[in-house]
Amino acid sequence: MCVGLAAKVVSVKDGTALIDATGARREVSSALLDDLYPGDYVMVHAGVAIAKITDTDENETDKLMEELK
């Protein structure tokens, strides 16, 4: 089973994105995604941004994470 994390892109530079996942910031590879910009939301797995996601997807993920707390 794979677990991905939804995160907001803070900045993008040279194939690396700085992401914010509920307050935790880290750098991940953005090499798989074209046209990635600050403010976009991405799914992150194993240190790689693997897909862009919509605001609706992000809201659903936030709700599920809150329910798990």
* CATH C-level label: Mainly Beta
H-E order: EEEEEH
Number of helical segments with 4 or more residues: 1
How many beta-strand runs?
A: 5
The proportion of residues forming helix, as a percent range, comes to 10-25%
Counting structural domains, the number is 1
Task: Indicate the mean pLDDT.
Answer: 87
* Global shape: globular
Structural class by SSE content: alpha+beta
Distance between the terminal alpha carbons, to the nearest Å?
21 Å
β content, as a range?
A: over 45%
Q: Quickly give the CATH architecture.
A: Roll
Query: Biggest sheet, strands in spatial order?
Result: 3-2-1-4-5
Largest sheet: 5 strands, antiparallel
Radius of gyration based on Cα positions: 11 Å
CATH level 3 topology: SH3 type barrels
Which spans have pLDDT < 50 for at least 5 consecutive residues? none
Describe the structure.
This protein is α+β, with helices and mostly antiparallel strands and 69 residues long. The protein has a single domain, classed as SH3 type barrels (Roll), CATH 2.30.30. The protein is built from one helix and five strands; from the N terminus they run βββββα. It has one helix at 55-68, and strands at residues 5-13, 16-21, 24-29, 41-45, 48-53. A five-stranded antiparallel β-sheet has the order 3-2-1-4-5. β2 and β3 form a beta hairpin. The protein is globular and about 35 Å long. The model has no long low-confidence stretch (mean pLDDT 87).
